[in-house]
Fold each of these.
Amino acid sequence: MSPSNTPARGRRRRRVLTVLGAVAAVLVVAGLAGRDAAPVGHFTSAQAKDAFAESYDRAMADLPEPDETLDVRTGYGIVRVYRFDGPADGAPLVLLPGRASASPVWADNLPTLLQARDVYTIDLLGEPGMSVQDRPIQTDADQAAWLNETLRALPEDRVHLLGLSIGGWTAANLATREPEKLASVTLVDPVFVFDDMPLEAIVRSIPASIRWLPRSWRDGFNSWTAGGAPVEDVPVADMIEAGMNTYAMRLPQPARVPEQRLRELEPPALVFIAGESVMHDPQVSVATARRVLPEGSSVELYPDASHAINGEYPDEIAADLTAFLDSVE
C-alpha cells in the first residue's frame, strides 16, 4: 500500500522530521571535526557525556517505559537494548535507528508497532547513545559481527529486523552476511543499499557535520532532508545535536551492499522507499530493489514521504509491516 499525502503527515512533521538530517550529516564525513587518536567512538569529556545523557533522557521520555533494559556484552563493546512488551504474538521486532538518533527516534512508531509485536530497540554501537564501544570497528564484517552477537543474546529463536536509514544499511549488511537469527528484514529508506548517495547530499552534509560551526547550519541541512520541516526545539533533535557536539565517532565508511549479495538474500525482505528522499534516487532505488531482491520480497514506494518517512507515516508503515510479517510466518 502506497499512502498519499494526508493532513496527518503535516501534524507529525513538527515533532519527528528532525532526525535523519543529522543522521545523514555525519554519515559521509563522520569524525571530520575534533579528530583525535582514540581508536573507538567516545564522548569528548565527562561533561560532554553528562550533557548528552540529559538530552537523551528527555528524548526517551517520549517513548513508553521500557519493560526491560539490557546491556549486551559483545566482542566490540556493550550494546544497549530496550524491550517493550506487546502482545507477544510471533517473533519480536528489533529496531535499528538512523545514525546518531538512537532509540528515541522510534517515539511515534512504538504505539502502533506494539499493537502487533513485542519490540526491541537498539542503540547502534559506536554512535551517540547508551551503547559503549571498546574495540575498533574497522570493516563491514565487524558491523555485522557485533549486531549478530547482540541478536544471539536475545532469548527468542528468531527476530524480525527493521532498520531505518543507516540502520537499514546495518540490517541489510547483517542479513547478507549472518542471517541465521532473522525471520525477515525490513529496510526503511536505507542508504547505501539500492543506490549511492547523491553528490548534493554529500556536499551539503560537510559543513553540517563540523561540530564547532553554528547549529543553524545543521538545522538547515536537517530541514532539507526532512522535506523542509522545522527542526528546532524538539527533544530528539536536541539529542542528536548534543550527540554531534559531544561524541567522536570512529566508524568505517559503509560500502554499498553488493547486488549479488542482495540477490542471494535469505530472509524475506520488505523495503520502504520515500519518494521525496534526498539521500538516494528513489526511482533508482525502487527499480534496483525490485530487480535484485529474491521472489517473495515486497517493495513499497511512499510517493510523498521524505527521508524522515518513519515519523511521517508511522501508522501506514505499521499496517504494511504487520501484513508482511503475518505473510512470512
Amino acid sequence: MLASHPRNPWFPFTVNQTQGRLRLFCFPYAGGGASIFRTWSNQLSPEIEVWPVQLPGRETRLLEPGIAQIEDLVPLIAEALLPHLDKPYAFFGHSMGALVCFELLRQLRRSRGVALPLRLIVSGRRAPHRPDTGPQTYNLSDDEFIAELRRLKGTPEEVLQNTDLLQIVLPTLRADFTLCETYTYRPKEPLTCPITAIGGLEDSEVSRADLAAWNELTTAKDYKMRLLPGDHFFLHQQQAMLLRVIMQDIFSSMARHAQ
C-alpha cells in the first residue's frame, strides 16, 4: 500500500521503507507525474520498494515551475535522492525519464561513497548519444504544440480539450519538451552498471538501433534489450508485461549482487 508523504515533494508516494531489499526509483515521461507509478508496488514483489519521483510543475508540485534544462534539474534530484540510497537500488525511466536517469547517474557517481544502481532500466528512449533527427516542437505555437501532443497520445484528450486546464499544464509540457529537444550529449566515462533497454514494437519515435545503442554507454556485460507490443506508451498498454520484465531483470541483478 502506498502512503502519502507530503513533506517531501520529490517522493509523494513511497512504500514501507523497511520491507524491501531494493528501492526502484521511477521517473516519468514528459508531462507525466509520479502517479503513473502509484499502483506498481501492488504488482511487483514486496522485496521491491517503488519510489515514484515527482518532478516540479506537475500534480502535487503543480504550482512550481517546470525546469527546462537538464543541467538545472539533475543536481536537485541528486540532492533529494542521496539520503535514500542506503540500500541497493535501481532506476526506471520512460522517455524523458530515461534521459533524466542517465544524466542523474553520471552526476551521482561523482558523489563520494555512493554506489551506482544494480540496474538502469530505460524505456521508450533512444540512447542519449544517438542524434535526434525529429523536428523541434517545444517552440511551436499553442495550436501546433497541442496538435503534436495529440499525435503522441501521451496527454489525455479530456486535458487537451479543457482550455483552462491546458493553460495550467502547457508551461510544464513545454519545459519538458525543451529539456529533451535541447539536450546535448557530452562524452564521459561509460557507466559500470548493467542496462535494460525496453521499447515498443510499434513505437515510431524510437528504433531498435536507438535502443541497442544503450549498450555502448556501459562497461557492464549484462545488457538486455526487450521489445513489447505497443507504441511509444506501451508502459500503459502493456503494464503487466512491462512489470514482469522489470522484476525479472531486477532479481537477476540482485542475485549477481549477492554473489
Amino acid sequence: MDIPLIEQIKIQARVLVPLVKALQAELGEERANALVRGALGAHYRKLGERWWRAQAGHDLGEKVASCFEAFAAGDALDYEVLQQSPDAFDVNVTKCRYARFYEEIGVPELGFLLVCSADFPMAEGFGADVRLTRTQTIMQGASHCDFRYSSKKT
C-alpha cells in the first residue's frame, strides 16, 4: 500500500518539528536551519537520483510531470501546467495542503524548511542538465509557487 507523500510528511513532522525546535534553541535558528537543510538536502538529492532513474518517461517534461503527480497525490496540491515539452516543465502550484498543514500546527516557517527546501536538492538529483527556477512559494506567503524546470542543454 502506497502512502501519499502528504501523509508521510505529516507523520515525519511529529518527529522533525520537535527536533528542529530543539536544535534551534540549542544552536540558534540560522545554524540549526543550515544543518537541517544540509542533512535533508543530501537525502533529497539521492532520492531525486533514484526517482529520476526509475522513471519510464523519456524526456524532462514527462519525468517532471510524473514527479508532480506524486507530490499532488492524496489531494495535496492543485496545480496548473503552463508548459510541458521534452526540454521544459513549467507549473504553478495554486493550492498547497503541505502549507496548510504546517500553518495548522503553528509552524509555517518549518514547513518551508522541511518541505520546500527539498525542491532544489531533489532537482539536482535529476541530473546536471536539469535546472529548477522557483521565485516564490505559498509556504512563504505568495499566491502560488512557480516551478520552472528546463534542460541546461537548450
Amino acid sequence: MRLSHYALALTIILLAITGYLAWEAQEEAKGARKELELVRKQQAAHEAAMPAKPVTVAELPPPPVAPPPSTVPPLAGSSLMPGTPAPLPSPPPAAAPLTDLQKQILGMPAFAKVVESHTDQGFAVINVGKDKQLTPGMKFDVRRGNGLVGRVSVGETIEAAEAVVDIDNTIVIPGVRIEAGDELILPVRK
C-alpha cells in the first residue's frame, strides 16, 4: 500500500474517534444539565421552607414611671386615719396581649438549649448532637421567653450529646446577647 492509503485510513479513524468523543461529551452535558436542574429545584424548595428575611423582636418601650409619693397629709376618712377601713388594692395592670408572632414563637417546641455562650468569640455550645441527627449548617432561631434573641448555625464540631453552633451576628437585637438557658427552635416564618 501506498503511504497515501495509510494517511487516509488514519484520517478516517481519527474522524471516527473525534465524532465518538463529541457524542459522549454531549451526553455528559445533558446529564450535567439535568443534575443542575434537580439541584436548583431542591434549593428552591429549601428556600420556600425558610423565612424570607430574618425575624427580630423590636425593643419594648420603657415601662411608665410612677409618680413620686405625695407628701400631702392624709385627709379625714382616708385609710391612714385610725378606725377607717383600708382601701382595696388596685388590680395590677393587665399584660399586653401576645402578638401572633409571639404566640407562634411560644408554641414551637424547643430543639435544644444553650449550655455555654461565648458571644465575644462568636459561638455557643448546645446540649444536643449526633443523638438528634444534627448536621453542620443547620440553622435555628434562639428563643428567650416569647421573643427571639438571635440565630445560630451548627458548626463542624458535633459530639454525641453536644455541639458547637456559630452565632449569626447579622441577626441579633442590639444590646442582647445569647445566654446559657436560651432555647433553640426551628426558624420562625413571619
